[in-house]
Amino acid sequence: MTELKSPGGTDDRRQNNKGIVSEIPCYLDQAEVEMLLNYAIPYPEGYLAIMLMWRAGLRVAEVVALRRDNLELGPTPTLRFFGKGRKERLVPVHEELQEALATFVRIKPVAATGRFIPVIRQTVNTWIKKTVAAAEEGEGRAVRIHGDELNVHPHTFRHSFARHMLNNGVRENKLQVWLGHSNLTTTHRYSILAPDPEDLMSDIP
């Protein structure tokens, strides 16, 4: 099992274009994410990258480091990570992500390193920018971002995942584990975006 190390720190805090740190996470509604995914189809790696951030809440650094042996198949497929001090983190794989991974390995051979998406983080940013540009041209409108961000970033999908989970019944302490937050306070700031929850991945649309 390869140790996929999760970056620590306060990477969920993002500055807006004026350099002000936003305390309220910027996010996309499910319909908006699905619209972007439709326009990401021409970029198989970009499509999978967005899907991993949206359906598993991965950081972009985790997306580009993800290896095939970090995926555990079985009755309940999971992604396995190791953080500081070899602390284990398991993230359940949503059915839509399972399908995306299966489709990806059919059309794109996994790199010799075992990485699904063997690129640098900036490449993922480029795919996202191209996807957003194609969507805005195709739809004739700007992508609707909730919050003070003007642009869609990799973390926008991670924030969207967190809000979507809370809105569909996942408890904060469970979401904390899935996101790899060392402190529940970091996860709690998403509560302003969602009602009180319960936690069944099988119930997540």
Number of strands: 5
Structural class: mainly alpha
Q: Roughly how much helix do the residues carry, as a percent range?
A: 40-55%
With helices defined by DSSP (H or I, 4 residues minimum), what is the helix count? 8
Percent in strands:
5-15%
User: Please, what is the average pLDDT?
Assistant: 83
Kindly report how far apart the N and C termini lie: 30 Å
- Lateral strand order in the biggest sheet: 3-4-5
Assembly classification: single chain
Q: What is the element string, with H for helices and E for strands?
A: EEHHHEEEHHHHH
Write the topology of this structure.
Elements: E1 14-15, E2 21-22, H1 30-40, H2 44-56, H3 60-65, E3 71-72, E4 78-82, E5 88-92, H4 95-107, H5 121-139, H6 154-167, H7 172-179, H8 184-188
Helix pairs in contact: 1-5, 2-4, 2-5, 2-6
